[in-house]
Amino acid sequence: MNSAIKIILVEDDQLLREICVKKLIVAGFNVATVIDGGEAIKKIKEEKPNLILLDIMLPALNGFEILKKLREDKDPNTAKTLVIVLSNLGQDSDMEKARELGANGYLIKAQFTTDEIVSEVKKVLKENGFI
Amino acid sequence: MNIRLNIFKRVLLLMILASLFAGLIVLTYNIIQASTRVRDSLIEENTLAARLASRAVETGSLTRLWPLELLKHIDESQDTLFWWVVSPSGKILLSDDVSLQNKEIDNISQGLASEKIEDLNYYKNGEKIKIIIEPIHIKNYPEFYYFYLGISLKRISAVQKNIAEGSIAFFIPIILCAFIISFYLSKSFTKPLDSLMEGVSYVSKGNVNHKIEVTSNDEFGHLASAFNKMSQKLKENKERDELISQMKSDFISIAAHQLRTPLTGIKWVFEALANGDAGELNNEQKEMLKKGYKSNERVIKLANDLLNVASIEDQRAGIKFENCDFEQIFNDALSSFQNLKKNKNIALNINKHEKFPIIYADKEKMELALFNILDNALKYTPHNGIIDINIKLEKKNLIVIVKDNGIGIPIKEQNLLYSKFFRGSNVVRMQAEGTGLGLFIVKNIIDWHRGKIAIKSKEGEGTEVLFSIPITKKERNINLQ
Fold first, then answer.
1. SS3 labels along B58-73
2. Does any CB of chain A come closer than 8 Å to the CB of residue B340?
3. Residue among B253, B267, B277 whose CB faces A113 most closely
4. B253 vs A23: CB contact, 8 Å cut-off?
């Protein structure tokens, strides 16, 4: 059922990316990855995912900027795409900024296991009627 | 600002009034002096004239010649109002006014042997005048004839008027000058003060870029340039503080990211291995992996605490007060706590008598403080322990008491409780997890809220942490003072 759901993981750390992707695929999602912040927008527009797992500290363009561009862009395919920030930045100001920019969730990587991340992803998808 | 400006104006006004007053005194004194002098000489001159006239009449009676020439002179004098020659019976024998001749006068000075000067109201117009009565002694005549000379005092008032007019003509320009000078002086005093005041108020509002124009080389000029130096210094300090603060903030972010990313990698790898994602493990391997995972969790916790400490020490960035629901704060802290408690058999009693109030607090930080206190109670209480939470309202303070029956804190070490990286010696022996930052963070957060914290503990019996915070902003501000 989940394979119909497409997720893009924007993550520059190779190890984290590999583990996370594997876990999401095992959970049955259709997953694509982006390493570079600069490519993220282009990839998102091509793939039109249902949900984006978005890191903040990225090369070229940071996660906040990507989120801002997505939300400000009038493209109906991506303007409302679900975004969960998955970052190790965890100050209140970071979380608030992400909320203000329109993130649907915020997870601090070090404080969640991959199992917990998958269940958080499912929760957000469920809340928005995708599963 | 007006008040200060007025000080100068008041001083200068006072000075003007004082000089005016002094001028008036001098003027009055001069007028009195001059009047006396003029009066004396007026009377002296006319008495002399009256005497001369008397003597002339006396000699005239011998020669049968009236001293008409002399009388005419007297008559022409500007002071003379009238003159009469009066017989002993009071009949006017001779007068400047022919119509008065042979008339009787009432208050004749009978038998007066020496001259006399009297005040009188002039019979013509009631004007105050002087009259000089000079006896005329005619040879072989037993009774005195009299020479009456009425003199006007107009000369005195004319002199007074002259002096007054002259003085006023002299004083008015001086007063005008004083006024103008004082106005410009007060302006020149207040203008630099004004700009200084303005500068001070700018700087006190945190605008350190303001500069005062230095226009003079006097005390005001020195003050202004000293002020400029001060604000320059303040500006530099402020910029440096901002830079340091920014660097610190950046450091926190970078450290968080750089530390947490590899730790996350380890965490997730261990998780995947433990889940058997890379093939089934035997029990011993699983056990070792679990220990490794726990150890990694401790480093993650340390990184969290360090970040919390850094953000707490960077108060500018850290603090965000608002009215918030304590119920929600408590429930959030409690649910994180319940997650931890799962692995441990601990009885939890929550005792809250009253409805939770809306409090003026930093929500996230308050939750962190509450969680740290609960976390400590849990960590240092053995299996089958009891934790009591009591929350109540007292006056305008919210009071939270968390009590455990854990290992307690050695009395000797209790004064170090709130220092960074403090850990009880019994805790270290027990090898319990912990970073020694928890209570430091709690103490700082409670202090921010202008609250109080007290810890009662006995080694081996348990620990009671009590904190109280003012509920409203108003109360908080009172405590602030």
1. HHHHHHCCCCHHHHHH
2. no
3. B267
4. no
Report yes or no for ipTM above 0.85: yes
Mutate: best of B257, B304, B365, partner A, most A CBs <10 A: B257
What's the pTM value of the predicted model, to 2 decimals? 0.54
| Interface probe with A: pick from B246, B249, B261, B320, most Cβ of A within 10 Å | B261
- Cα–Cα distance for residue pair B395/B103, rounded to 1 Å: 109
Dump pLDDT digits (tens) for B206-223. Answer: 777 778 777 777 887 888
Q: Left if phi > 0, otherwise alpha if psi is -120 to 50, otherwise beta: which for B381? A: beta
Report the pLDDT value the prediction gives residue B1, as an integer from 0 to 100: 44
pLDDT at B317 over 60: no
Contact B253 A91 (CB under 8 A): yes
pLDDT of B169 over the 60 cut: yes
Quick: pLDDT tens for A11-20: 999 999 999 9
The Cα–Cα gap between B338 and B347 comes to 11
Count CA atoms closer than 13 A to B417's CA, side-chain side. Answer: 21
CB contacts of B256 in chain A (<8 Å) are 88-91
pLDDT tens-digit series, residues A34-65: 999 889 999 999 999 999 999 998 888 999 99
Asked if B10 and B206 count as a contact pair (C-beta separation under 8 A), the reply is no
A88 contacts B260? CB cut-off 8 A = yes
Instruction: Give the pair of three-digit tokens for residue B169.
Output: 């003509």
**Do the chains contact at A91 and B265, CB–CB below 8 Å?**
no
Q: Which positions in chain A touch B265 (Cβ < 8 Å)?
A: 13, 15-16, 19
d(C-alpha B159, C-alpha B38), whole Å: 8
